[in-house]
Amino acid sequence: MNRIRKSAAIGSVVAAAALAVVGAPAAQAGPAPWCTSSDLMIKAYDVHPTGSAIKRHAIVFTTAEDVACTIGGTLGNVRFLDAKGADMNVPLANGQGEYREVTVHGMFGPVAYVSSWDKGPRVTPAFVEFDLPGQKGSRGDRVTTAWPSWLGVNVGIQNIGWPVS
Question: pLDDT tens digits, residue range 60-73?
Fold first, then answer.
């Protein structure tokens, strides 16, 4: 019986020491700060399904492994740029969708989907430029990232949210 008590006591001490070294669980660490451009790695991908009448892209937001931050809302002042950085004046259409805030951490990142018609006029931007959403409705940092392929000229951009499968 004494061996069982000693083992239980030793196990409790080891668990307490491990928590002291590692720290409190992430759930108790509090909310992640709002994302800025220095927290994020942003890349656009062509996710066009074969045979669809709509061309789709995803702007993906990830962070370094040791960084977590919160983002949500709408990308502002979206512009598609040519290779020299000139605005291509691509018209933006319909909208945003439901507002959500998500925590970005490591490879688990949200997306903003970009859709355009597969038929009709097309442009091939080199870059997309936009303002990140700031906290409490403010405007965040301006970001420019490479654009992967052509798109139609009537473009819709959804709010930032979790990827759909």
Answer: 999 977 889 999 99
